[in-house]
Amino acid sequence: MISINFEYHRPHSISEALEMFGELHAKGKEPIFYNGGTEIITMMRIHSLYTEARAVIDIKTIPECTYTGFQGDRLVIGSSIPLAQLQEMPEFPLLGKTCSRIADHTSREKITIGGNICGTIKYKEAVLPLLLTDCDLVIAGDNGINEIPIQQVFDKHMLLAPGSFVVQVLVKKQFLDLPYVSKKMTRIDRIGYPLLTVSALKTGEQARFAFSGLCDFPFRSNSVEDALNNQDWSVQERITNAISQLPAPLLGDAEGSAAYREFVLRNVLEESIAELKGG
Amino acid sequence: MIGKSVPRKEGNNKVTGAAKYTNDFSVAGLLHAKLLTSPHAHATIKSIDVREAKKCPGVRAIVTGVDYPILTGSAIEDRPILALEKVRYFGEPIAVVVADTEYEAQNACTFIKVEYEILPVVNTVEEALEGKHPLVHEEFKNYTQVKELRPDPTRNVSNHVTVRKGNINEGRTLSDITVEIDVSFPQSDHAAMETRSVRAEILPSGEVYLHSSSQAPFTIKQSIGKYFNINENKVIVHTPLVGGAFGGKAAIQLELIAYAASKAVGGKLVTLTNTREDDMVSSPVHIGMSANVKLGATNQGELIMAEIKFLFDSGAYVDEASDITTTAALNCTGPYKINHVWCDSYCVYTNHPYSTSFRGYGHSELGFAIERAMEILANKLKIDPMELRIKNAIKPGDTTPSQAPLTKGNIGNTAKCLERVKELINWEEGQVVPISDRIIKAKGISSLWKTSMSPTNASTGAIITFNKDGTMNLNVGVVEMGQGTKTTLTQLLAESMKVDESKIHVKMEVDTQTSPRHWKTVASTATFMAGNAVLEAAEDAKRQLKNNAAYALRCKPEELEVGEARVYLKSNPKSNVNVKDVAHGYKYENGNAVGSLVIGHGSFMMNHLTKKDPQTGKGVPGPAWTVGAQAVEVEFDTKTFFYKITKAVTVLDVGKVINPKGARGQVTGAMCMGLSWASREGFTFDENGIVLNNQFRTYKTIRYNENPKYIVEFLETPQSDGPYGARGLGEHGVIGMPAALANSLSAAAGVPINQLPIVPESIWRQKRGGVYDINKF
Prior knowledge:
Mean pLDDT of chain A: 96
CATH class of the largest domain in chain B: Alpha Beta
Strand order of the largest sheet of chain A: 4-5-10-6-7
Low-confidence stretches of chain B: 772-777
Number of strands of chain A: 13
Number of domains of chain A: 3
Number of helices of chain A: 12
Number of domains of chain B: 3
Helix content of chain A: 25-40%
Order of helices and strands of chain A: EHEHEEEHHHHHEEHEEEHEEEHHH
Oligomer: heterodimer
CATH architecture of the largest domain in chain B: 2-Layer Sandwich
Largest sheet of chain B: 8 strands, mixed
Radius of gyration of chain A: 19 Å
CATH architecture of the largest domain in chain A: 2-Layer Sandwich
């Protein structure tokens, strides 16, 4: 049960949403945009997040946010699309597979792609395929509605100006059907937070890799990719070098120690490289 | 009716969602209570300021520890209702807020300002025994002991139980070979679907009404009376269907807080239901343990001696932990004949959540230690682990570690259970079988036993009344918590009365005002105790029916028999009268009435149980021992150390199977619980004693599709004093699962796995010799 009283608002257009945010902000209600609401429900009830929010703005009924389909040479995914739906969507199998391992089915019916990448959870596994495909994000905010390359707005977490929200994800067709791997390892169950999740995409002779659960944030790193693609080295050397290039220390937490994560990472990378080579 | 899989009497109501549990209740004027709990594991409370919280909307009252400076506990009175002066575990209740709505109560909790002074944390049983100050209980010497304990307060020990059987020095001398192992596991959760819930009201007449999701409504009555100085006869407790308990709902905790909360608002009806987080750590948990086991045997594999040390993590308060410490000691060897046994079992305070009973009650804990030691002994002796167990299996004529004599009537056939498991798990195929270059199949086995330690005079009763149509109403004080006892008791009555079970209406709810007193619904004793009471009540009802029928049939009562809803002449069954016509006296055709209204009653009391000797442990702790054997099969990836549990087997000697599907359900459920506990459950504490996984998002239990194939079979060696020979079976499926899993994975990985839970990382750590070194790949 959430013990804090707050207002619920449901705008029907992007402009209405932005306007609402401005008004509520001016009234000191610390509004937040939201999609699925799972993080609000689970964190507000234990009083650990959003405790200052006195208004929430539900963007799920904004038409652009619920749209999926092709526009020109790009696949458009509305930010309000739930993970369970992406899982069933044949157009972007890497995204589908990655999303299919986030949380459990009941939660995936609620959790949206926008919510997963913008929330506070450190794993944000849905962002991995987006990082690998150089997608653009449609972001609505004070500066209007803009398409911004994901690399410019995602660094460890989303860098969104207050009062802005992600409307859509735009992925170029050329990336959708490339060979890929997506592997999630947990402490023991199929369902749970990751020890690590690896998504990889084969673009020509090169492979791209993005990781979640390994460090405190999800990432794609050029130096890690360079190491993993270095054909002068053996697979083991590539992996060892990649590990030395990680952007932050390996995570050690209740899911697993840092040393164990490294062990799991080595196995998973070895398998991934082998699979991508085969593919 | 015996041996028939009668569907649960309450089944339709449950599967349609119509069944009502304690918290399925609302009424105008109902007030809601919420707990404020401690964010620290050990700290002095310097001040609690409730002024801001009292101003919050809807708030009616706030109660803190100083309002009720009393100490409670079933073994030793060490636990305040709400923390007094200091907090001793993460999640300990500090204050309760009563408000018009639940959210207002919860909201007000955030406005209570508590000032703490953090104290060093006693975070393991080993640290506790070092006895550094501050102790968990500095004032221990001033506490009232309710049960006989042997404490060592300077080392945080609340109870030290010793078992001395035979002569340990002789045992050491006679042993050709000895093995020694250390095992351990942390505390864990009961994970019942229904979180604990209670509702309290104090009427102007002075009567106190409580509704509680409890295994012990009659104990609640006693406790409320005792701690609040109320005549017990004024306390009335209702327990509707309970949504899973597993031992966790036998402790009295929220009831005391709810009473205090109601009192604070002038006796108005107040409801208090745990959040999942509170249910996991604020209310009592499954005990943790560290143990050291030494086993001695001859070269031929005959067990000679056992030297065992158990350190039980009782957490911050004792509750049932001291009795679990005792039970584990008195049954420390598992179902094996060993002549020389020394056991030292310690109940140790730490700054962890407090421990209470959990399905298996000490036997799963001791079982894990012993069965791992047996496996290592077998390896060292190079004897087949199955053969070693069969060779040493305990039998009638032997004695238990507490020197209780075993007879044909009080123990089943362990060796036969093992023999059957051997076939069912295809043991001959080999313990370890490769199935690909990476994957191997491995098996692990375990024996098990369990007795039920109760007060030596634990008792129960049953009442049978009749409807006008001759159907019966059965009223017992047993709580229905998913175990299906009410259906089993119905079957026993139906068998005795020779009618279909549909002719019997069993009351699901327990009402302490009208239900016959039943000790507690614990220890797999309900069928044994209440079953015997039901059979006695049935005899009583039959006697009365015969008396009434004697008028109708113009004969002596002893010439009559009851069956198939009739009372008939033994010599000529065609001469009979309907039960419905004699259940309420008998009316002659002219209107004259004779006889009496039939009300059958019966009772049962444990007998021949004796207190244990304080030095040697000698005594008879329980009425009988259920024995069994179990096995687990896993598929193990030798590269990643991930594994899948593919098969789990139990063969249990239950005396008599009353409801086959019900029995299978109980055993399978318990096996699932044991595997879940062994493979993934357990609280993770940080260095400050904070529980890091008090939510299901981080505390994992086995999921539906992660279950193995379950194979369950029963042997029927009758228990001489059990109803139709039946023994208890509710808990037993859990007992051998942890050891069987650990034995299979130890065999698969080639390293000893002696800690629970067994996640792949634990195996990886063992493979590396227990050393963490990031550079050593």
